[in-house]
Amino acid sequence: MHHDVIVIHGRYAGMAANLQLVRARRSVLVIDAGERRNRFASHSHEFLGQDGVPAGELAASARQQVEGGI
Ligand SMILES: Cc1cc2nc3c(=O)[nH]c(=O)nc-3n(C[C@H](O)[C@H](O)[C@H](O)COP(=O)(O)OP(=O)(O)OC[C@H]3O[C@@H](n4cnc5c(N)ncnc54)[C@H](O)[C@@H]3O)c2cc1C
Question: Mind listing the pLDDT tens digit for each residue in 40-52?
Answer without folding.
Answer: 999 999 999 999 9
